[in-house]
Specification:
The protein has 441 residues and is an alpha+beta fold. The chain is built from ten helices and 21 strands. It binds zinc ion (2 copies). The site of one zinc ion has 4 residues, from loops. The site of one zinc ion has 6 residues, from loops.
């Protein structure tokens, strides 16, 4: 049998996903994709705006040779550009709507004494470099604006996707609780099982962590994920929900279940890596919008943006399987059907790292319910917002316990189905090179 490394050596993975030295960040012309966000209040301006970019000469040349998509996404040079100020973008996107992907052509040059307006990152785990970004032209929104032809975008086929066997074996195992891991500014959670009094992941929901300007929020002593063969449900394709795959590429050995990746270079590039390995099941529109097993309910969220159209996960446990923990990813609560249907929950990991809420709807807590928050200590967004915590208080939730805020890091939060919420530190009881086992409590 061929091993993962035979089929997919490191050299076949785009350099953007490597954790080594970033090397030189290419300068010149880029095609830049930007997802139009929900309108935001004034006080949030001042945050950088992120563009997923492909080096234009690479795209033009490779498209010309009609290279097949997997190889194309492996070869094309990728960068993230972070613009200090968003006004230049919103003045130029015509009547595009939230969730639309718009394309620009930009020129990146080294920063000079008087001219710099953003950062360039040559890898997701790159600390970045100050540059000058010049807008050359607005190309249009997705289909008209994309310089990359349609067959390079992974789309998924409703008749052939989502293999239920991926989750089958795990849905009948008995679980012990839900862990929210300290991965800095990002998210990674797991349904945990018990073995000899210790707890281990049996299913991951996201394997993200701090990236780019929040790179340093990732705990330095985080040794890895284990075991490597349990399924991963990806809530949505934002970098901070899967970036640990760059740190720990063994995560590529897992089966992934994910919503459709948006037509943006970096998110598509990872989706083609997983597809090339035969590890990606996509859940796309046209398939049943919910998936229920004994231990979980997966729901396709009903919004338009990447955050609001992903997978919301409810995990079930306890003696009669009636305890429920909601993991909404970054979705607005009003786009989660079971929340809209007034379902009640015993536990919740607050949506979007406690960032700005775009709706008044808050999930309904059961008596004694507990709240958690996956957030990086000292993150640049200032998550969690106090207004968001207060809105949860008003909705009947206690103050959430955040990851990475107590004692030595990583400091995870663990909600056993039977028992109080715990803050637990990194100490794999079996001395694995991992940071996600929880010793007996
Ligand atoms: Zn996020
Ligand atoms: Zn997100």
């Amino acid at each position: 049998m061929s091993t993962l490394d035979d089929r997919f050596p490191d050299s076949n993975r785009n350099r953007f996903f490597s954790s080594g030295e970033p090397g030189e960040r290419p300068k010149g012309r880029f095609y830049a994709a930007f997802e139009v966000a929900e309108p935001i209040e004034n006080e949030e301006r001042g945050e950088p705006v992120y563009l997923e970019c492909a080096f234009a000469d690479d795209v033009d040349q490779l498209v010309d040779t009609q290279m097949e998509p997997g190889r194309f996404w492996n070869k094309v040079s990728l960068s993230v550009l972070a613009l200090d100020d968003e006004s230049g973008i919103y003045a130029n996107i015509g009547n595009s709507e939230p969730g639309d992907i718009v394309w620009f052509e930009v020129v990146v040059s080294p920063a000079t004494v008087n001219e710099d307006n953003g950062m360039q990152y040559g890898q997701l785990l790159d600390a970045g470099e100050r540059v000058h970004i010049h807008f050359r032209k607005f190309r249009g929104s997705t289909s008209q604006g994309s310089p990359i032809p349609p067959h390079y975008w992974l789309k998924g086929n409703p008749d052939r996707e989502l293999n239920p066997n991926v989750l089958g074996g795990y849905s009948s195992m008995k679980s012990a609780g839900v862990a929210v891991f300290d991965v800095g500014q990002g998210a990674s959670q797991a349904l945990m099982y018990e073995d000899s009094g210790h707890f281990f992941p049996m299913l991951y929901v996201d394997v993200g962590g701090g990236v780019l300007q929040n790179l340093s929020t990732f705990p330095k002593n985080f040794k890895g994920f284990c075991p490597h063969d349990v399924p991963i449900i990806l809530s949505h394709w934002d970098w901070d929900h899967w970036s640990s795959v760059c740190r720990f590429p063994d995560l590529l050995k897992s089966d992934w279940i994910a919503p459709l990746p948006p037509p943006k270079p970096i998110q598509q590039s990872l989706s083609w890596i997983l597809r090339g390995l035969g590890r990606l099941s996509l859940w796309v529109r046209g398939m049943p919008p919910t998936y229920r097993t004994k231990s979980m309910l997966l729901e396709l969220c009903t919004g338009k943006t990447t955050n609001d159209s992903g997978i919301a996960v409810t995990l079930f446990g306890g003696a009669r399987g009636t305890k429920r923990c909601l993991l909404p990813g970054d979705a607005g609560y009003r786009y989660i059907p079971s929340v809209v249907a007034n379902e009640r929950f015993n536990a919740l990991s607050i949506t979007h790292h406690g960032g700005r809420l775009h709706s008044k709807q808050i999930p309904i807590p059961k008596r004694g319910a507990r709240a958690m928050c996956s957030v990086g200590s000292g993150n640049s967004y200032k998550h969690p917002f106090w207004e968001t915590i207060d809105a949860h208080h008003d909705g009947g939730w206690p103050t959430p316990i955040s990851t990475g805020h107590y004692g030595s890091r990583p400091s995870h939060v663990f909600q056993p189905w039977n028992g109080p919420l715990r803050v637990v530190s990194d100490a794999c009881p079996f001395a694995h090179p991992c940071s996600v086992g929880i010793p007996s409590i």
